[in-house]
Amino acid sequence: MLHKELPIHLAPEKLCRHAPPEGTPLVGEIKLSDLTNLSKELKAKPDTVVTVNLLFSMDADGLCAITGELSADLEVICQRCLAPMIYPLRAEISVSPVVSDSQAENLPTRYEPLWVPTGEINVAEWIAEEIHLALPLAPSHEPPCVSFDSEEESS
Ligand SMILES: [Zn+2]
Predict the structure, then answer these.
(1) Ligand 1 mean position to 75 CA, how many Å?
(2) What does pTM read for this prediction?
(3) What is the pLDDT of residues 47-70, one digit of tens each?
(4) CA of 80 to the centre of ligand 1 (A)
């Protein structure tokens, strides 16, 4: 049972505009198996839970700001020793929804553009995308790699 399920779709701009001054939180959990467009490697442990802790607000410049963090202990393959390892992913989110190139170009550098051409985003797609962006291309154990033997001993 998940702690709190997330909506399937949401309209970021609307959420920000209607948010109280302290912002509207979006807090919940989603399983990797519920994410769409997830890479093959990350599907190895579909029950892994991603914790979502985001805040939708209007910033001082009147921009819609979505800030916070996604976290998950992902099982990935160490690219040095090719053994599975847990990568403690912490993805810092700081995005603002945009509908056009010019809007994206004019965004202050503190935000990444979040493309929302229809005004709505699919939460599962978006979270999968942010996870892929935050995941290193070649994750590896902190050197030196733990050998298979000592890993078995410690478990
Ligand atoms: Zn390794």
Answers:
(1) 12
(2) 0.85
(3) 999 999 999 999 999 999 999 999
(4) 5
